Amino acid sequence: MTVPNVDRDVLDTLREVMEGDYPELLDTFLNDSEERLSNLRATKDADQLMSCAHSFKGSACNMGAVRLAELCQDLESNAKDKSPEALAQLVADIHSEFADVRPVYEDEKHHAHTH
Amino acid sequence: MQAQEPLTILIAEDSAADRLLLSTIVRRQGHQVLTAANGAEAVDTFQKQQPDLVLMDALMPVMDGFEAARQIKALAGEALVPIIFLTSLTESEALARCLEAGGDDFLAKPYNQVILAAKIKAMDRLRRLQATVLQQRDLIARHHDYLLNEQRVAKAVFDKVAHSGCLSAPNIRYLQSPYALFNGDLLLAAYTPAGDMHVMLGDFTGHGLPAAVGAMPLAEVFYGMTAKGYGLAETLREMNAKLKRILPVDMFCCATLLCLSFQSRSVEVWNGGMPDGYLHRMASGEHVPLPARHLPLGILSAQAFDDRTDVYPMAVDDRVFLLSDGVIDTCDANDQLFGVERLQQVFAANSEPDRLFEDIEQALRDFRGQARDDVSMVEVSLLESTQAHGAAPVYSDSGQSCPLDWSASFEFRGATLRRFNPLPFLLQLLLEVHGLRSQSGAMYSVLAELYSNALEHGVLGLDSSLKRDAAGFARYYEMRAARLEALQEGFVRVHLQVQPRGEGGRLVIRVEDSGKGFDVARVMQRPLDNVRLSGRGISLVRQLGHNASWSDQGRSASVEFFWEIEA
Amino acid sequence: MSVVTEVSQDGKKLTISIEGRFDFGRHQEFRESYERLNEKPESIVVDLKKATYLDSSALGMLLLLRDHAGGDESDIRVVNSSTDVKKILAISNFDKLFDIS
Lengths: 115, 567, 101
Hints:
The structure holds 3 protein chains of 3 kinds. Chain A has a single domain (8-114), classed as Up-down Bundle (Four Helix Bundle (Hemerythrin (Met), subunit A)), CATH 1.20.120. In chain A, 81% of the residues lie in helices and 0% in strands. Chain A is built from 5 helices and no strands. Chain A has helices at 8-18, 22-42, 46-62, 66-78, 84-114. Chain C has one domain: 2-Layer Sandwich (Transcription Regulator spoIIAA), CATH 3.30.750.24. Chain C has a 5-stranded mixed sheet with strand order 1-2-3-4-5. Chain C is globular and about 35 Å long.
């Protein structure tokens, strides 16, 4: 089992800033991310991969998903150079990293509702 | 720390989560938030809602942030709408692209709300600064337009006042900038009733309207008094008194005044504070300097004012040249002055007197490279005395009510002779007779001649043969001033008699003095002489009037004028 | 240009020294140098040793000073004038109003 790579300090700040809207933010992020993941899987075009990865990176960064952001950066920088197999692997890594950190955000949602 | 004013901020960000997060942060800081999910929406929203500041994601679909920024900047025009780019591009890359697109700053992800607040505050300060600058610029431009208009109006009024002059006379040449009035430069010229010419080149302190405003009352005095036949001294006294009264203490008018007499072939000069004028004698090529011997006008009280003039003989075609200090003070690139020496070099090198102005302008151009706009020059030459000058004022009433049968006698004694010039008053009196108006020039000349003879040769006992050469000329006028100053006794009487005669009438002028008289027979024997400097007065009287005669051993002169009523 | 003032011990003599260009930009300073005194001095000296240039507004300022100091009753001396400055004062005949050296 991998350790979730989410920066807790960022989450604390987000919680503090968003106040009552924190759950909405989490939801929006999770939904956005699902969409981005399916886009990544669906396309083979390097430019599209790049811009999708860039976008995903930004969100991930803002939400404290540090490792996820790194992986997206990697894909963004190298989309033109890597072979289709290597790209597919990166996309799979991203997918898996998201699966790992997703519970953290679910958990945050849960805690926000009960507090 | 000063509280930040709430702004309307547009957030253009394609990621929904990021957009939500940023909106919340910005709203919490007290601002109103507008959102857009891509560049095109951002431009559209900007156009419709006019936000104060834009937070722009760099990479967005449909239209990216850079293009949207360019369009928004174009729409904003002169106003500053700060655009802060939101970016996770690497720093140096980000900065370069942002600035190119017209961005003012950038904010890196993850968003740090403290940094964001600081940047918003800083950008807003710049925005307000720009707004102030534009506002003040527009205010200044408007104010400047008002000022220009005021000057136009002032100049139009002044031109009406100054139009009655004779600067277009054939013996005057002048150079004056169209802005001369607002540089304080003034050039006036007018004929006296006797056909002499008064010329004034003046230079008021200061610039703009304050300088121009003093010129108008001055011009009125100059023209009014010259037309009535007052001499330089009286006109100067009046101008000085007027300026002293109306101008503030630190304002004054430097001026050179000339009275050119074609009949007596002389020029009378008064220079208060102006650069040297020059009397150019054609025969010898000499340039006699006419330096400033007096304080400028408007400084001294009436009692302290010095109206003494210098008189120089002039031959036909001799010229008097006056210039403002714009010539002497022209500087070159090293702040060296053109100066009096260079001017005199131009005089020396000038071979064609008619090209003097061109030579001076060329020398100034060579010296400085570009012309100044406050150079004023005037050149007045002595031409053969002409009969045609200044139309006599014509009145349209029937003349039935004017005095046609009357006589008046005046006696001017001692102290009054020192300071009072009765000629303008006597002329005004005679002009009441409409039939005489067309001869006002001749009448005035004759009256002036008889009066001056009575005063100078009769009462003061001066010998006009002194005036045969330039040195004697100067001495004559020195003696005149001295004897006049010391005068206690003596008189000049003027008798005027007007009677109807047929359809018109007759005027008899008789002038008597208390002097020793002269040998009338001897003088009458001389042929009518136009060339000599002295003794021309009698010829003049005999030519201009009728039945001129002298009695009482030359102490009494009589001359007549006739007129016919025009049908 | 700067304007430096100095009042004698007994308060009877005011010396105003001008350095640099004596022109309109110094109007305010020049006026303040004599208007602000508690006692009106009996005599005034304007020292132009370090003055490089004089224009018509400077002449105007001298007239204001003279007017303030009593007009015809004033005692004002203008000293240490350079040749150029002397020339300007001579053309305007200001030696008829001020003692110039």
